[in-house]
Structures are given as C-alpha cells and as structure tokens.
Amino acid sequence: MMTKHYDVIVAGAGSMGMAAGYYLARQGVNVLLVDAFDPPHDQGSHYGDTRIIRHAYGEGREYVPLALRSQVLWDELEKKTHHKIFMQSGAMGFGLKGNAPFIDEAIASGKEYNLDVEHFTGSELMAQFPGLQVPNDYEAFYEPNSGFLFSENCIKAYRELAEYHGAELSVNDPVQDIEAYDDSVKVNTDKGSSFTSDKLIISAGSWSGKLASKVGLDLPLVPSRQPVAWFEANESLFNANTFPALMVEVPNSSTRAIYYGFPTFGGCGVKVGRHEYVDTADPDTMNREFGSNKNDEGHIREFLDQFMPEASGALKKGVICLYTRTPDGHFIIDKHPKHAHISIAAGFSGHGFKFASVVGEVLSQLSISGETDHDISIFRLNRPSLGASTVEKN
Question: Does the CA dihedral 280-282-286-290 come out positive or negative?
Fold first, then answer.
C-alpha cells in the first residue's frame, strides 16, 4: 500500500486541531486531520454544547490579547457559516472581597486593557440580576461584550470549511505510532494506514500526553473527569436575554472553589460546573456515566442552593467532560525542542476552548513559518513551572 504524503498532519482534530486544519487549508496547505473519533463528538473536551468566552481574564492578564483576537476570529467564523457560533449574553464574575484572587485578576486585567467592564457590590449585582443571592461583602464585575460559544457548532463549522478548502480527514482512526525524522514524520493509525508529512501538529486533548510520548516527550499532563449539569430554572430570571454567563469564586476553608454557569435558552435549563474540581482519570477507561460518582451533582446543587436558588430545579441532564491540566494551569503551545517541525498544543486546563480559534491560527503559523505573530511565551515547554519532565526522554 502506498503511503500518502502531506504538508502537515494534525493528530487530534478537536477544538484546536480542527481550527488549525482550517487555517492551514485556507492557505493552500495540503493537510490531513486524524482523529480517534468523529468530531464533534462526546468523548473530548468540546462536549456539552457551550463554552464561556471572557475577555477580562482571571487566569492572568497575559491572556487578554489572545481572548480579544479569539473573539475577532469567532465573529469571522460566524459570518462564514450557517452555524450559530457566539451568543453575546455578557459575562460576570463575583467573589468575596479580599479573598477572591481570580476575580481580582479579572478586574485588574480589564482595567489594564481598558475593557468595557462594570464593577458592582453584592447588593448592586442582585439589583441588576434578581435571580442571584450574593452577600454584600462580595465584589463583582460584568462585561457586556462577552458571552458564550456553541462549542460543537464551532467544530462543525471549522470542519466544513477545512474540507471545503481541501483538507482531508481520517476519523474513528486512533494514532498508534509516530516516527519522527529530521525533516518529516510518519503517522501510523489503528486502521492500518501510514501517512507521512513535512510537519506535524499534536493537539489530541486528554490523549496529548500519550501521543507526545511517541515523539520522546514526557509532558506533565493530568486528565480529569468533569461533571456538568443542566437544571430547571425560573426562565424569566435566567434566560440568555437577561442573565449572563458567570464565574463565581467561593471561599471554602483553606481552599477555594470556582463555579461557572450559563443562562438557559430554548428550554435547555441553567448549566453549571465546578472549574477546579479534580477527579483524575484515564480518558480511555473513565466512567462517563453522570451520577456514577455521588459528587457529580451534589457540589453543583450546593452552589445553586446558595447563590441561585431559583435555578436549583429538577436535574434535566448531566454529562461528563474532560479537562487536561498542567501543573501551573497555563497551556502548552510550542515546538518540539529537538524536532522543530513538530508543534504541540495541549494542557488547556479547563479554560482553553474560547482560545481555539486563535490557537488554530498560532499552530498554522508555527507549521508554515516556524514563528507566530502572537505572544505565547507563557506557554513554552521550557518554563520552570512545568518541571524537567518536558525534556526529551532519549
């Protein structure tokens, strides 16, 4: 059987990979996207209908330029497709004043970049959004230009456009092995296919660590099982026309808990999850049944009872998604330290989807020219907070 050669192979065609495939194909690059499933699907980190896009950023102000560029690219994508991509519901965040570093950083980043961000006390926030119960010693911010993305629609749109521009896909075809040479790679798949290319992008979500190990990298990536649930709610208080997406930082003894939520639209119910919830798992073997762990609903229900009691109705649906965490919570976006024709995008730590558009742009630039217009210095493999395990094993 003849081995087919491409300019670029993308191993993992989910959020970042599919976007990269589109940006490459649009420029005439001969690209193959290989995925273990058939994107969009329910096995990865883009599952669950929606993802928040915030511009004032609690994880670090270095993210703000990327968030703003992402928004531009998402808006462009919506104009190019028949799929709904973005809902401008606004986004808010609140937490105990003096004990909410996530909220403090979001407010500071908004000020530094002169974003349209309003500030409230707890009582002022309740007056603005009557469905909330917030103590007055909480501080809050609200950014009207943010909202949420329809994550599975985003993947569909990028896939359709990538294929329109000539990208090829091999789906339901897990990568079994990768052979890295000085100026090329060979990818062998579960279907018995072998493909070669000049460049390779590894962007396989919770499977990125396993694929990176095939090219000699031991990345400190920890997949975790993430329950998310939808609840019946007072539609007049929590619909997307009157209520924003939200992030809430709750003090919890010596730790902190960060919850995120979405308004209801089309009768779907209010969606809520817990951002820093850690239940480590192997993505190949983890239990994907919501409710199999007694905490799947319990901690989310406690949050709703405390802060959004009229959204704590009957459970409508629950699903299990995946995070893939790095030790410092920042992404990995870089070239292989020994094979510069291999790029890696991984470890998005539960806050990466909103950046999928710009990360796709970054990956396409790295593959074509070896450089990118964007500042990705905090995502480099050689940063001290990742430890020494990112160096080549051999």
Answer: positive
